[in-house]
Design a protein that fits this description.
Largest sheet: 6 strands, mixed
Shape: globular
Number of strands: 14
CATH architecture of the largest domain: 3-Layer(aba) Sandwich
Radius of gyration: 21 Å
Strand content: 25-35%
Number of domains: 2
Structural class: alpha/beta
CATH class of the largest domain: Alpha Beta
Bound molecules: adenosine-5'-diphosphate, magnesium ion
Length: 315
Amino acid sequence: MIVFENVSKTYSENHKAVDSLNLHIHKGEFFVLIGPSGCGKTTTLKMINRLIDASHGSIKVNGKNIQDYNIHELRWNIGYVLQQIALFPHMTVAENIAVVPELKKWGKSDIQKRVDELLEMVGLEPKVYRDRKPKELSGGQQQRIGVARAMAADPGIILMDEPFSALDPISREKLQDDIVHLQKAIKKTIVFVTHDMKEALKIADRICMMKGGAVIQKGTPEEIIRNPASDFVRDFVGAHGAAEEIFQLERLMTPISGDRRLSTSSVPVSASLQETLSKLALYDRLPVERDGNIIGQIDRKTVIRFLAERGGFHE
Ligand code: ADP
Ligand code: MG
């Protein structure tokens, strides 16, 4: 869906901000780019919608080189959410959300319907919020409007550049949860930039870790945890002793009552964190078993979330 082939970006002689990047981002995937400040995340993201042009290599979206798209068509079909959402202060919430549909010359009633649908989708009551001005909203609510605006014309791809990093921890957690649910429901391809490992592990289908413009590791959250390729990740994994000690599968699983016979692969309720993770490497979710009976179900995201919350991060 989004393919980078040998993409480099040179802003000035002999310094590559992005160096020979190869990426295959799948349709419907929640793809997270992570790495320290200055490692090239924003540059990578902006090359997708051509806010920045690559110096070398090619980027394809849906099989077509982005240079071959009409630039407006390309940008209108890629939603973009920034850290400090730039809502137009003099416009209402509804008008802010409707910017791209207006550019696309949608009919008035279609736009109104869409605005209300999007407000519902991001958890803001349309009646209450559609006529407000941005300054009458909290930071978290403004970010929700930013997300709604990015999705307004139903783009296949949404780019998000540290969209929650300016928020307080509670709003951030809430928005992380909501964006994960939303993405599962609407099946958009999301490329999400963060420097927060905890956030990445919580929301990503796949994580790409960058350093100095290059990829140091790509993988699912559990692959990164189990097989860390950098000190940054290794530090984090090193802190797992604590998580292992407090890990209790029975407390994380969703219980199932009634006597269901054991069929396929399962995890014993006494399994350690490591064992649970390695079994879940192959399956999204598995039955949990005690004495040959299924007593519950555990899914990978729950375990990753446990790790993200209890793993003792260095932020
Ligand atoms: P990140 O988003 O990971 O913090 P960026 O992609 O913004 O990183 O920047 C990557 C590198 O490119 C940094 O060294 C940064 O200083 C440099 N850089 C970014 N934008 C420009 C620019 N417009 N002109 C020159 N150098 C830039
Ligand atoms: Mg950046």
